[in-house]
Amino acid sequence: MIEIKNVSKTFGSIKALDDVSFRVEDGDVFGVIGQNGAGKSTLFRCIMNFFDDYDGSISYDEKNIKDVPLEKIGFLPEERSLSPKKTIEEEIRYFAKLNQMTHIPDEDLQRWFDRFEIKGKLTDKIKSLSKGNQQKVQLLAAVIYKPEFVILDEPLSGLDPYNIRLLEDIIKELNAMGMTILFSSHNMENVEALCNKLVMIKNGQIVLNGTPQEIRNSFPRDKVLIETDKDLLPIIDGKAKSYTKNGKFWNVYLNDPEDSKMIYEDINKNLGFVSQFSQAAPSLNEIFAKVVESHE
User: pTM of the predicted model, to two decimals?
Assistant: First the structure.
């Protein structure tokens, strides 16, 4: 278990973290979301002991994080840093050795290499790989020695949809093996697919904290999706603060979530059957945008 308690960090006059507190329980896939410059990477660097002059405390299983052997913790930084002249095998074995894993059986390394679907051979130079494959090599290097806890800072950025799904599946597998994961992403779909809990940091402060569903349910259901080829304007007039229309799909943003009942009744009375009528909690993408705007 990782506990971040009242952590603040300043750089000159800039307060990168401002009294941040939350807990990551064993077995969590815990998301940290926020805009660029919100403080996510600064927080990760505090956990990794890259800074020792922050206020507050960070503990791992009730021990000061500074007293925890580094091989217990894996770290994938947002900035990629591989040695271009090394082979893939040399790079992975090097990082494993740094973390007290002195021997990786050849068959195990090949199995991991194949699971990550890295193009080429283990003897290929890092510089010969595409950016996406270099990213997969760095993620593999961060988990090959099976740390108990791993920080993944934007592990999916810049990847195509296929490789995003592949790494999402691998992250789930690592978690099922017992690895606790602290994960950041700008893509809310990734966060919703992977994380059982999350916090959102804005200007160094936590502004949201909970499970994805708890956070979604804490916001009003002020959007209705309606599928119909008929004109809804006479029905939604006065009840919608805005709407968008894409073919037969209408996204209606309500002045009052309770107005959906009246709209539904008016549709039944005046238009009859519609293919779809749903009033769901807002998506994490929509919440992210709302919270960013409301905390400017």
Answer: 0.85
